[in-house]
Amino acid sequence: MTLSSNVRRLLAVLTVLVLVLMYSPLLIVVINSFNESQSLTWPPTGFTFDWWQRALHSDGARRAVATSVQAAAAATVIALVLGTLMALALQRYRFFGKNSVNLLVILPIALPGIVTGIALNNAFRGVLGLQLSLLTVIIAHATFCIVTVFNNVQARLRRVGGNLEEASADLGAGVWTTFRLVTFPQLRSALLAGGLLAFALSFDEIIVTTFTAGAGVTTLPIWILENLFRPNQAPIVNVVAVVLILVSIVPIWFAQKLSGDTEALR
Question: What predicted TM-score, i.e. pTM, was given to this entire model?
Answer without folding.
Answer: 0.77
